[in-house]
Design goal:
This protein is α/β, with parallel strands linked by helices. The structure holds zinc ion (2 copies).
Length: 242
Amino acid sequence: MTKICIETIPILPFGMLNAFLIIGDGKVVLVDTGLPHSEARIYKLLKKHGLDWSHISAIVLTHAHVDHAGSAVAVQALTSAPVIAHEREIPYCQGEPPIMNATGMFGRLFYKTGAILEPFPCFTPDIPMVTTELSLAEFGFPTVTILHTPGHTPGSVSVLLDDGRVIAGDLAASGILLGGIVLRKRPKRPPFEESPHHAATSLGQLLSRGGETFYIGHGGPLSTKAITVHITALRKLNPVSG
Ligand SMILES: [Zn+2]
Ligand SMILES: [Zn+2]
């Protein structure tokens, strides 16, 4: 197998919001779908690699926030690939408003705009993940595994390649405001986080499984060193006030 390529799809500029293509031998896994109406941005990156919608063998959602799952229904209609999400995200895929614990001033202000609670087309994942890990072998990627990594949301997952690259969704963020723009190598908490202690445990698990380069939804990528520093900061937080 040729080396797997991870292509970042800029849903918003300056790394503010990313989705990803995992590209192997004629097959592609799409990780996250961006905000509603992101199909053209995704297609542009497929085309860059000489690919089209028919090459997508699976759509993995790191979690069911609008900025990651907003185009799931539209993309699936173009690809007919199955949508994979953790079973604990199903209520949010079906329109239940997510729990939003703001991690700071920006999160509180952002919450007030209502943008993060914007409804998006509802769906039920074709493959609800009910185990702690799931291989993507049957979708053409035997060296790629989805791991349940709660913390940002209860059903957040990360996609780990056996060479140490990992797509971790919003388990950590970097940059300023929503994420990205500047300081993209410096880790920070996402604007919302359900449990900082669960996030620390999940990041530690990814490191122990060989995670080295962390591609994230907002900013990044982050190094092992940056993630280690971030875990220490998360563990110091009060689990309740988080
Ligand atoms: Zn999120
Ligand atoms: Zn996000």
